[in-house]
Amino acid sequence: MKVLFIGGTGNISTASSCLAVEKGIELWHINRGKSVCGVHGVRTITCDVTNSAALETALAPHKWDCVVNWIAFNAKDVERDIALFSGKTKHYIYISSGSCYDLPQHSPVITENTPLGNPYWQYSRDKIAGEQALMRAHIEKGFPGTIVRPSHTYSTIIPITLGGGNKYNAVNRMKLGKPTVVHGDGTSLWVVTHAEDFALGLVGLLNLEAAIGEAVHITSDEVLTWNQIYRHVGAALGLEPNLIHVASDTICTLEPSYTGTLLGDKSHSVMFDNSKIRSLVPSFVPIIPFSEGIRTTIEWFEASSDRQYIDPDTEILLDKLTGIATT
């Protein structure tokens, strides 16, 4: 099987690259050449995907069994791919987002039939527009598209809301014994998924005819409260964090850039029903509990001081929120 990943070296996609090669897939990456792949056996096409003429030239000699775009963010990106790969791939997978689901619903259990819509987050609305463009092309032109929705998948990020991601602020503050700010009261339910578990589902979908025309999410089955998530991060550091709580509305009022990720996503309780991915890929069984996965993530950050970035603006915000919570 000959597969192209547009992207393929990121927090989510690297594990899928590794698994695809391990399974004997002829895997190609196309990227700008600014990231070192580090996955032995991957072949690379160096090109900026935003340069349409150069991209068309670079791809001209190839046909694919499957193309996965990890870095398409809107309808324009998807429409470009439809034009590029029509007649040149048997299958196309668009990586969308679990944040596209309209929350809250009557039930916290999310299925692929849960309505889409996110009035708080432009990122999610753009992803939805990409989904719509792909499904139009499938229905009207027979383009062989599949939508995949990951949700808060981690490997080389800290999957917490405040001072996490690619920043080391929250972890550093835990080490220093400072209070750790958690949104809300920390009791809402959430799902975090290790990238290696996500890869089991994604790689199983490659060139799978039954997946064409479908949308599917791929997540862990483990459900945790935010308090548990933060405590697992602390346990990976060998400590018990001092958790303090600030209402999500208060956080977003103080720092509006969090509105999408909080009010449009992480302030709600969610559980994902993974029946559909299991029906398509019966071998999909997520096995990495967060308590174990976060240890390997912390080890990755600790292996290089260059990865332990302390963002000064985030530090100021966390100090302000700490003041609010303790007064």
Automatic annotation (TrEMBL):
<dbReference type="InterPro" id="IPR036291">
    <property type="entry name" value="NAD(P)-bd_dom_sf"/>
</dbReference>
<comment type="pathway">
    <text>Bacterial outer membrane biogenesis; LPS O-antigen biosynthesis.</text>
</comment>
<comment type="similarity">
    <text>Belongs to the NAD(P)-dependent epimerase/dehydratase family.</text>
</comment>
<dbReference type="InterPro" id="IPR001509">
    <property type="entry name" value="Epimerase_deHydtase"/>
</dbReference>
<feature type="domain" description="NAD-dependent epimerase/dehydratase">
    <location>
        <begin position="4"/>
        <end position="208"/>
    </location>
</feature>
<dbReference type="Pfam" id="PF01370">
    <property type="entry name" value="Epimerase"/>
</dbReference>
<protein>
    <submittedName>
        <fullName>NAD-dependent epimerase/dehydratase</fullName>
    </submittedName>
</protein>
